[in-house]
């Protein structure tokens, strides 16, 4: 092999820096955008369950928590009739529960009925995990912006019977 | 003079900064905003259609019969759209099937220009899709053939034909979503369709 003296021009250095900056921005973009879009989709899926059941069963609530867990921590899923935040619709009876126990408030939360036409609010709040560029910055001790993310959806129950 | 290359690096740097910085800001702020808005509007429209499809007649239900309540469905559509997009009606020019809405001041909305037209597609000509393709508009159709299914066709904006037989709700929203940084507007047209369930569930 012949020994050749290598060199890099200042222009090339700038060009490489620019490319690296663009790449890091793209990484940051994906780290910022993708989790938010996926959380939005998960919340829409939850709202479809709420529409079908007039609330969330305990099992569905746990499944939703598990589904949202990869995207963030301190996940809060609230389901309540619009204007009545204290009245939770989490823990309703699953479909097909015998009517003798379905309406027992000691066992299940009362589900929202189709005939009432009340609006149900599905509210999900979580602290998004740092991903992409934010994860890289966090690993070297640079904290990024507060990533509290809140999503609201609104539906009406289509359930009338146990 | 022309052969002088003094200051070349500075010029290249300046050009790169001018070209790349806005592009980066656009990619980091505006593109995610559009993508999220695109999904949010679709979800809103889907939920409006699905919620309107739950409207049933209370008086008939007392006798054990489930009958779709068209008037109630219309109320649900208006109420949901107003809440979802932060809009308020103008009572003075409310003409039933053709209303105008205003933006609620100091609230965020996917609409920007007042007034916003909300239009119920007539039964006789079930065609959705305003001819003015640049105007933001909300349109909906409530197809209710009664208890006997009858075939009908809805032509959506863009020419998509939808065949329906049972009571069905179609909600169409077209708006221009402006990016927060560059203020570039992108047209988004979303359609939500839900067939009404009349069984005891």
Number of helices of chain A: 4
Radius of gyration of chain B, CA atoms, in whole angstroms: 23 Å
Mean pLDDT of chain A: 84
Largest sheet of chain A: 3 strands, antiparallel
Order of helices and strands of chain A: HHEHEHE
Q: How much of the residues of chain A is beta strand, in percent?
A: 15-25%
Distance between the termini of chain A: 82 Å
Rg of chain A, rounded, reads 24 Å
Strand content of chain B: 25-35%
Describe this structure in words.
- The complex is a heterodimer of chains A (162) and B (201).
- Helix content of chain A is 41%, strand content 18%.
- With 162 residues, chain A is of the alpha+beta class.
- A three-stranded antiparallel β-sheet of chain A has the order 1-2-3, with helices on one face.
- Chain A is rod-shaped.
- Chain B is of the alpha+beta class.
- Chain B has helices at residues 8-52, 58-61, 70-84; strands spanning 87-89, 98-103, 116-120, 137-143, 152-155, 161-164, 168-178, 185-195.
- In chain B, helix 1 (8-52) runs antiparallel to helix 3 (70-84).
- The longest helix of chain B has 45 residues, at 8-52.
- Chain B starts with 7 loop residues before the first helix and ends in a 6-residue tail after the last strand.
- Classes of the chains: A alpha+beta (162), B alpha+beta (201).
């Amino acid at each position: 092999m012949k020994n050749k003296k290598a060199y890099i021009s200042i222009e090339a250095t700038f060009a490489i820096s620019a490319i690296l900056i663009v790449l890091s921005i793209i990484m940051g973009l994906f780290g910022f955008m993708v989790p938010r879009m996926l959380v939005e989709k998960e919340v829409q899926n939850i709202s479809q369950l709420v529409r079908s059941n007039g609330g969330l069963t305990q099992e569905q609530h746990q499944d939703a928590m598990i589904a949202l867990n990869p995207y963030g921590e301190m996940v809060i899923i609230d389901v309540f009739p619009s204007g009545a935040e204290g009245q939770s619709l989490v823990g309703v009876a699953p479909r097909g529960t015998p009517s003798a126990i379905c309406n027992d408030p000691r066992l299940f939360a009362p589900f929202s009925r189709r005939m009432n036409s009340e609006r149900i609010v599905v509210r999900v709040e979580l602290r998004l995990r740092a991903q992409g560029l934010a994860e890289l910055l966090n690993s070297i001790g640079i904290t990024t912006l507060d990533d509290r993310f809140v999503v609201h959806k609104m539906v009406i129950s289509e359930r009338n019977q146990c | 003079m022309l052969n002088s290359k003094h200051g070349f690096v500075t010029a290249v740097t300046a050009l790169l900064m001018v070209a790349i910085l806005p592009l980066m800001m656009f990619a980091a702020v505006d593109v995610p905003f559009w993508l999220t808005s695109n999904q949010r509007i679709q979800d809103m429209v889907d939920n409006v259609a699905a919620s309107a499809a739950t409207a049933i007649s209370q008086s008939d239900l007392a006798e054990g019969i489930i009958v779709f309540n068209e008037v109630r469905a219309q109320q649900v559509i208006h109420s949901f759209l107003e809440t979802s997009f932060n809009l308020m009606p103008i009572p003075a020019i409310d003409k039933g099937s053709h209303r105008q809405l205003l933006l609620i001041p100091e609230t965020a909305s996917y609409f920007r220009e007042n007034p916003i037209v909300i239009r119920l597609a007539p039964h006789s000509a079930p065609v959705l899709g305003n001819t003015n393709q640049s105007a933001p508009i909300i349109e909906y159709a409530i197809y209710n053939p009664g208890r006997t299914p009858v075939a009908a066709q809805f032509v959506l904006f863009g020419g998509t034909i939808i065949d329906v037989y049972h009571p069905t709700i179609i909600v169409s929203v077209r708006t221009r979503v402006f990016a927060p940084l560059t203020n570039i507007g992108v047209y988004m047209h979303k359609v939500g369709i839900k067939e009404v369930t009349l069984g005891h569930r």
